[in-house]
Amino acid sequence: MAFFLDVGTDLFGAKQNTRLEFAGCPTLSELIIAAEAHFDKECRLRRPAGSPDVSFKCQTMQVYDDTLLRWVDLYSPTQLRNGGQVWCFQPESIYHSEAPGSIPPAKYAPESWLGSPARARAVTEAGIRDPVASEKLRSVFYNIDTSNNRYIPYSTLRDYFTRYDIPWTRSYVGDYYDRTGNMTYSDWVTFAGRYPSIVDSLYYRPRGSYLDRSYYSTALAEADLASARAKREAEIRSYYTSYNAERARLDAEYRARQAARDSALYYRPYSPRYGYM
Prior knowledge:
Layout: E1 3-11, E2 14-22, H1 28-46, E3 60-65, E4 70-73, E5 84-89, E6 107-113, H2 132-144, E7 151-153, H3 154-163, H4 170-173, E8 182-184, H5 185-194, H6 196-204, H7 218-266
Parallel strand pairs: 1-5, 2-6
Antiparallel strand pairs: 1-2, 3-4, 3-5, 7-8
């Protein structure tokens, strides 16, 4: 099944966001290759006069964690989910300063990658302002649109509301109550703007958090969330440990090969000595 990721970065002071398609959940190497290939073209197209022609390089990546409700470093493919948002950081440069503002909606490019790691910083330092609402919007839509059709039949949407005890009535959803056919992603963005509380409910209820229910224990919900976040923090630390161990192993292997090559090059036992006549 196709696997989609919204991948964004800052190019020449402006935020760019695109949707990339993979045959399945990509490895980090595949994600880096796909992101660099796409944004290298964008970088060359948008390069202002006088700026150096430098290839796009992804130094680090971050993903938005649904449990911790914040951006975290990307160390493992298990952190990726279909329809999720990934943010790429280039090596720091005066030509690619991080632009303040929200992440723009992803543009879908007709590219497929059959087959890519992130600077530790606070969200405000990364120039990303309040990404939670947009992340919830995308997350809910792709949880419902399991076939990646980029639209949701209204009958499916009504069933989804019913499954999580959210009323589908005229007083609750307005004129959407009588609509038939399909809701496109553009329609969903409009719906989310009109009914943000519904999107919040659809985002949290499938995760077992019913904070919008008056009879649900707030204290218990907070305890559950705290437990889930602690567990998620431990998982991310384990990803970080594994990532650093693998990087150290590769660095040691590279240094050993480099030393062996240098030794063979400069200290051959039968190489002639330089002498004076």
